[in-house]
TrEMBL record:
It is found in: Cytoplasm; Nucleus. Its EC number is 3.5.4.38. Its cofactor is Zn(2+). The gene is Aicda. Belongs to the cytidine and deoxycytidylate deaminase family. The lineage of its organism: Eukaryota, Metazoa, Chordata, Craniata, Vertebrata. One of its GO terms (molecular function) is zinc ion binding. This is Single-stranded DNA cytosine deaminase. The keyword Zinc applies. GO terms for cellular component: nucleus; P-body. The keyword Zinc applies. Single-stranded DNA-specific cytidine deaminase. Involved in somatic hypermutation (SHM), gene conversion, and class-switch recombination (CSR) in B-lymphocytes by deaminating C to U during transcription of Ig-variable (V) and Ig-switch (S) region DNA. Required for several crucial steps of B-cell terminal differentiation necessary for efficient antibody responses. May also play a role in the epigenetic regulation of gene expression by participating in DNA demethylation. Its main location: cytoplasm. It comes from Pycnonotus jocosus (Red-whiskered bulbul). InterPro entries: AID, APOBEC/CMP_deaminase_Zn-bd, APOBEC_Cyt_Deaminase, CMP_dCMP_dom, Cytidine_deaminase-like.
């Protein structure tokens, strides 16, 4: 099926602070081509990790096979159950540099190993610096995913307890991870204004 089962979505995308047992990453995607003021949807669906290959790399292989027209602009939107690991963030950043006509927005349900002293926060910073727009999923994003990617049998999306609070907590954590980038950009802007 092109649509995800409800139980898979609710289990894997739940934005818990401690998500024990959730080892797979799911990625829901929308690919659009932008022509001046209009956009045209080209594809949507979802993927998950396959044996030994992270879902982000699978998607990059999938989209690279499209042989995208360098004269057209494309926008890809991802909704992921986990933020990318350091290696995947590097692959995505390199991919974005190779396709300047492509923009990528990533909405993440949870942050992967960002509280440990690992490289994942640096990967997110590099990804952001490469031009990816990254954010934490909010109720609106979960609602959109439920209605777009889930076999919901016309059942309305009902948020779980703690959804909003966890989104706010994770968004603050992501902001702190990206803060050094914002501070550097603010300094550059201030120097430009001062003519330095």
């Amino acid at each position: 099926s092109i649509l995800m089962q409800r139980r898979l979505f609710l289990y894997n995308f739940r934005n818990l602070r401690k998500a024990k047992g959730r080892r797979e990453t799911y990625l829901c995607y929308v690919v659009k081509r932008r022509d001046s003021a209009t956009s045209c949807s080209l594809d949507f669906g979802y993927l998950r990790n396959q044996m030994g290959c992270h879902v982000e790399v699978l998607f990059l292989r999938y989209i690279a096979a499209w042989d995208l027209d360098p004269g057209r602009c494309y926008r890809i939107t991802w909704f992921t159950s986990w933020s990318p690991c350091y290696d995947c963030a590097q692959h995505i950043a390199n991919f974005l540099r190779s396709y300047p006509n492509l923009t990528l927005r990533i909405f993440m349900a949870r942050l992967y190993f960002c509280e440990d002293r690992k490289a994942e926060p640096e990967g997110l910073r590099r990804l952001h610096k490469a031009g990816a727009q990254i954010a934490i999923m909010t109720f609106k994003d979960f609602f959109y995913c439920w209605n777009t990617f889930v076999e919901n049998r016309e059942q309305a999306f009902k948020g779980w307890e703690g959804l909003h609070e966890n989104s706010v907590h994770l968004a603050r954590k992501l902001r702190r991870i990206l803060l050094p980038l914002y501070e550097v950009d603010d300094l550059r802007d201030a120097f430009k204004i001062l003519g330095l």
